[in-house]
Recover the amino acids of this structure.
């Protein structure tokens, strides 16, 4: 009997310790792994927000399913970084219940990322991809980008087949391992291809400005096709008006700071100058077929 | 020198903690404390990581042998072979020989690397999807053919493990499987409750059933005997080091694949020579040597190519990127003195720690069963509750643990390793086949 009581007490103590939470701050949920793009960007924002006087506590949720479940169920003031890309907002478990929920959660846009086409083959050029019509190019891509990329490449006129991976890191590793001669992934992550001795042929950002030293696709192809940037957005729940205003103000301040701009530059991200939230909500709702 | 000592010893301390607490692995530890050790000098955080990586393997093996609880998933063969030796009163042989062979495995791995450092750049490029699919298939085949079950029983268990592993939304192939529209199933079945419930609980049950005879925890620093045993097993240590070195390059699986594959191969050899019984020292030595050899080679893809291949490495890599260093062969050459010193120092300290700590582990046998039961219960329950709480799915994690522990107890007469192994590699295995199709057809 004593053993059972001791085990029970131990169990209760374990539960109590595990349940301990920090009070008086806004939970900052991250719907990705501790090493992914969401977390890396969130660390920068959390640092800037804390400096601006808005206390936030980062909580990694592993993936978008866990992140969205936590955001929908929490009763505490919480914010969560997310993206507006179609594959994510239509994925089971990662989606919004309806347009009203999306509208009430979306606080502001925070950053935008594009994709980069890279290769270890130094002889490949953007022109050779299109000019060799007889050839189908195999491209390693993360699963989120595969659908939009296929449409984009078809519009440009590049024959292709895609090999899909769980994330950007996987796609780059696959390309380096020889699964495909090209990779198309998050432009920031693609820097590692250059570090490994390869090259990035072009970046597909919406404003056609390129990234770092890598030119835009529009410098090589005459096309109206646009590959939509992956826009990072900030969601919030259980925030009163004052908290909401202070969070948005802190984020705006962070986005204009030198440190975040330098970070964005180093990661080939762009800081959106202004975005009409209502238009974005309408656009996202339409793509996700939300009522 | 002081830098090296500070970062390496700190890494050993946290690696020891990671090895002691099941489920509290390298990734969690690195994510929680890594930022303390991230400086503008990439080699600092790398020194910390090497200390942590090596210590967790040494301590994880001791925990597996002494408690029958795998501190790391790569320590499961040590549970299978080392814990029975411990129960037979041969703990000093198991732990001492394992520590020495682990040390030798690490050193051989470093020697292999520096002898083929130029060629290895090209070798790394061979680890593509097709090669990985072949390796996974061989591993599945070996699991089916050499576990304690009949082959068809193991095959059924592999299928069950794949079923458990694929449950949820599979990001790599964008495929929903067995979610029944239940949001809590979208992220899949949780690893820690499954491994603890389906593997650790039945193993502890079996160990408890066999523990009726009084254990005589005789421990001595049988240095000469241990070295003699290692010398007698020089061939096992050599080939296991080579196998571990190569397996360490396989993304994600790394040390887990190294220890399990070497264990399976050695077990096959022992079975063919009709000298295998649970608690086989050669199998233990093979698994642990391979495991430690892999702890070095696992670092190579991101040192040479800037490409991390395990989740904990991704965190280290992000910290290292702040240093603006370019990771390539030249970087390795430039830092070779520090890297070699770190690796050698860490392994020597871990080897030294292993014996005094081992004597403490041996004392576990003297702890009254009722207290041991409480400790083991907490060691199993804490990771389930902790990870469930962190992921906001506490009820699901506890429910999963209860389910898998029940299943584990029902299957206690069988070897449940095939289920666990198939579960762990399921996503890469199936995604590998899908990609194989995408590439070649």
């Amino acid at each position: 009997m004593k053993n059972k009581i001791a085990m029970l007490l131990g169990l209760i103590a374990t539960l109590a310790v595990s349940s301990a939470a920090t009070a008086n701050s806004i939970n900052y949920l991250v719907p990705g792994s501790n090493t992914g793009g969401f977390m890396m960007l969130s660390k920068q924002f959390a640092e800037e927000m804390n400096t601006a006087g808005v206390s936030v506590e980062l909580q990694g949720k592993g993936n978008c399913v866990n992140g969205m479940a936590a955001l929908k169920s929490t009763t505490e003031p919480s914010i969560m970084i997310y993206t507006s890309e179609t594959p994510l907002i239509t994925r089971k478990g990662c989606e919004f219940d309806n347009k009203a929920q999306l509208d009430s959660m979306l606080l502001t846009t925070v950053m935008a990322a594009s994709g980069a086409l890279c290769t270890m083959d130094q002889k490949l050029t953007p022109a050779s991809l299109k000019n060799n019509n007889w050839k189908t190019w195999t491209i390693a891509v993360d699963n989120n980008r595969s659908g939009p990329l296929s449409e984009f490449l078809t519009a440009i006129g590049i024959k292709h087949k895609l090999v899909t991976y769980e994330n950007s890191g996987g796609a780059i590793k696959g390309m380096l391992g020889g699964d495909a001669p090209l990779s198309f992934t998050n432009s920031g992550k693609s820097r590692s291809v250059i570090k490994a001795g390869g090259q990035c042929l072009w970046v597909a950002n919406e404003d056609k400005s390129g990234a770092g030293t890598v030119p835009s696709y529009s410098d090589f192809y005459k096309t109206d096709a646009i590959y939509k940037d992956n826009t990072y957005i900030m969601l919030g729940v259980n925030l009163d008006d004052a908290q909401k205003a202070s969070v948005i103000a802190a984020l705006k301040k962070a986005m204009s700071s030198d440190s975040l701009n330098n970070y964005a530059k180093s990661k080939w991200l762009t800081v959106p100058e202004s975005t009409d939230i209502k238009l974005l909500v309408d656009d996202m709702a339409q793509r996700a077929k939300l009522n | 020198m002081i830098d090296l000592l500070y970062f390496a010893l700190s890494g050993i301390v946290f690696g020891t903690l990671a090895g002691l607490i099941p489920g509290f692995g390298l990734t969690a530890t690195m994510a929680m404390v890594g930022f303390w050790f991230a400086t503008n000098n990439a080699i600092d955080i790398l020194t910390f990581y090497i200390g942590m990586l090596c210590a967790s393997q040494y301590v994880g093996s001791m925990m597996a042998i002494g408690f029958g609880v795998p501190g790391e998933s790569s320590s499961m063969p040590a549970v299978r072979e080392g814990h029975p030796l411990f129960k037979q009163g041969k703990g000093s042989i198991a732990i001492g020989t394992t520590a020495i062979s682990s040390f030798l495995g690490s050193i051989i791995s470093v020697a292999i690397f520096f002898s083929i450092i130029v060629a290895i750049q090209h070798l790394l490029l061979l680890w593509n999807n097709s090669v990985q699919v072949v390796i996974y298939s061989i591993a599945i085949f070996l699991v089916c053919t050499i576990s304690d079950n009949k082959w068809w029983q193991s095959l059924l268990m592999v299928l069950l493990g794949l079923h458990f592993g694929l449950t949820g939304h599979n990001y790599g192939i964008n495929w929903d499987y067995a979610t029944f529209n239940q949001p809590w199933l979208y992220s899949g079945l949780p690893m820690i409750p499954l491994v603890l419930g389906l593997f650790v609980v039945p193993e502890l049950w079996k160990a408890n059933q066999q523990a009726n005879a009084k254990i005589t925890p005789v421990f001595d620093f049988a240095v000469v005997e241990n070295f003699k045993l290692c010398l007698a097993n020089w061939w096992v240590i050599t080939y296991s080091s080579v196998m571990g070195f190569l397996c360490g390059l396989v993304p994600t699986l790394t040390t887990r694949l190294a220890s399990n594959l070497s264990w399976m191969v050695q077990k096959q050899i022992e079975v063919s020579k009709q000298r295998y019984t649970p608690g086989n020292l050669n199998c233990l030595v093979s698994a642990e040597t391979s495991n430690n050899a892999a702890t070095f080679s696992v670092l190579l893809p991101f040192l040479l190519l800037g490409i991390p291949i395990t989740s904990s490495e991704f965190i280290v890599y992000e910290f290292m990127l702040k240093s603006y260093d370019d990771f390539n062969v030249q970087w390795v050459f430039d830092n070779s003195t520090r890297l070699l010193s770190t690796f050698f120092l860490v392994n020597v300290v871990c080897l030294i720690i292993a014996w005094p700590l081992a004597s403490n582990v041996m004392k576990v046998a003297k702890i009254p069963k009722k207290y041991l039961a409480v400790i083991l219960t907490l060691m199993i329950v804490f990771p389930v509750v902790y990870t469930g709480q962190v992921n906001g799915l506490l009820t699901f994690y506890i429910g999963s643990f209860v389910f898998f522990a029940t299943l584990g107890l029902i299957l206690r007469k069988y070897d449940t390793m095939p289920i666990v192994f198939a579960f762990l590699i399921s996503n890469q295995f199936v995604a590998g086949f899908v990609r194989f199709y995408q590439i070649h057809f």
Chain A touches chain B through 50 residues (CB under 8 Å).
